[in-house]
Amino acid sequence: MVTTNQLIVIKGTRHGLTLYLDDSCSFHDLYVELDRALSTDYMDTEDSMITVTVQLGNRYLHKEQKDKLRDLIRSKHKLVVQSMESNVVSKQDALQWKEDSEVQVRTKTVRSGQVLEVTGDLLLIGDVNPGGKVIATGNVFVLGNLRGIAHAGVEGNTAAVIVASYMDPVQLRIADFLSRAPDYESAGVYMECGYIDESKKIVIDRLQVLTKIRPELSGFGRSVLNG
Amino acid sequence: MAEAIVITSGKGGVGKTTTSANLGTALALMDKKVCLMDTDIGLRNLDVVMGLENRIIYDIIDVAQKRCKLKQALIKDKRFDCLYLLPAAQTSDKNDLSPEAMVEMIAELKQQFEYIIIDCPAGIEQGYKNAVAGADKAIVVTTPEKSSVRDADRIIGLLEKENIESPNLVINRIRNHMMKTGDMLAIDEIVQILSIDLLGIVADDDEVIKGSNHGEPVAFQPNTRASIAYRNIARRILGESVPLMSFEEEKGVFYKVRKFFGMRQS
């Protein structure tokens, strides 16, 4: 553990370095200090890349400032910024966060050729007909017949699920995963859900299993996880 | 209060033109003043089905481009005084007609007629846009096949965006024996998927083809299954409540006797 001044504290862990940056000084001071601290540090050039986590405390940084810090750290030997964490977010981000975790309720029939796209979870009261498509960044709940395509977690959330009163889809998509209906004629099933299991495949099961495999679906926990 | 009803389907060959011709005929049989409007420019058929092909002088494009008056282009039916046809052009294409021109023509027709039946071309491009432009109501025609139900669904979705009442459904070409064996979609299933009101069902009847080829819409005939079905639909358009036809055939001795004497089952 190396301590330099009071502005920057560097801690080494098994996963790399963590930089604790003071949150009451000016950004300029911090920048200069960080530059100095990292320059004086001895780094073994034989080592592999070291990942760095930056803890900003209660400081809010603009994107440009973040980039500046990131560039600075990257310019030093073998350091790579893995993440920057701050206790504060902007109102805009908070709104976005809220939007991402909200349930959007829609009542309509999504017909062939129509696409219904929402940020957050989708609760559709109505059918998705063959050729129709529903897309959500969160979960998809269909209170009706799902006969078309449903895409949950479209921005990469593999924990998203698709639930339908009547499950007879052409395709189910969750994040980057896809499953399609079998080639033989098959009737749909009432009250089912689709999710990605441990073997990284979309499986369809009765929706009661969700209590076990996705307990985070209920309550506020969901929105925090999605954020 | 005149009403413009567009007959559409998305898919081709499901019976839009046949339905238009027969509904027009059935409404005329009930003494309504009806104008049939063919908007399938370049592929006109309605005049052939009505048996009026040889009387065409001016067409809808001539009217739209003000080369003639609307009255000059209207063709009176051979059988009724209250039934007229505004034929499509065969030499132009669908871009020669504009939605604005349609609205204008329909407004003029409404002063003269009680019902304006607009026969829509297949597809969802310009021709479709023209046909729905001036319509107050829409009838979507489908057959008990997956592909045509899919296209009907698409069309219903597009109609939702127009300033039109929720469309009604006509299921055409029903073959009872195939529905029974499950080789055709059931009526209930189609209505459930499309979730719009069912206006009528029409059996797949050889008489329909015969009628089209002779330029005599089947609705003229008193007693075929299809003509009764079309007349029932016309009555429902007028606001009567008529029960759906049953497709169950009575296969008793009496039925056979009647058949023997050439009496058709109604």
Automatic annotation (TrEMBL), chain A:
Signal peptide: none annotated. It comes from the Bacteria. It comes from Natronobacillus azotifigens. Cell division inhibitor that blocks the formation of polar Z ring septums. Rapidly oscillates between the poles of the cell to destabilize FtsZ filaments that have formed before they mature into polar Z rings. Prevents FtsZ polymerization. InterPro entries: CAP/MinC_C, MinC, MinC_C_sf, MinC_N_1, Septum_form_inhib_MinC_C. Belongs to the MinC family. This is Probable septum site-determining protein MinC. The gene is minC. Residues 107-204 form the Septum formation inhibitor MinC C-terminal domain. Residues 8-83 form the Septum site-determining protein MinC N-terminal domain.
Automatic annotation (TrEMBL), chain B:
The keyword Iron does not apply. CDD domains: MinD. GO terms for biological process: division septum assembly; negative regulation of cell division. GO terms for molecular function: ATP binding; ATP hydrolysis activity. Pfam families: ParA. ATP binds at K11, G12, G13, V14, G15, K16, T17, T18. GO terms for cellular component: cytoplasmic side of plasma membrane; cytosol. Keywords: ATP-binding, Cell cycle, Cell division, Nucleotide-binding, Septation. The keyword Ligase does not apply. InterPro entries: MinD, MinD_FleN, P-loop_NTPase, ParA/MinD_ATPase, YlxH/NBP35. Belongs to the ParA family. MinD subfamily. ATPase required for the correct placement of the division site. Cell division inhibitors MinC and MinD act in concert to form an inhibitor capable of blocking formation of the polar Z ring septums. Rapidly oscillates between the poles of the cell to destabilize FtsZ filaments that have formed before they mature into polar Z rings. NCBIfam families: minD_bact. This is Septum site-determining protein MinD.
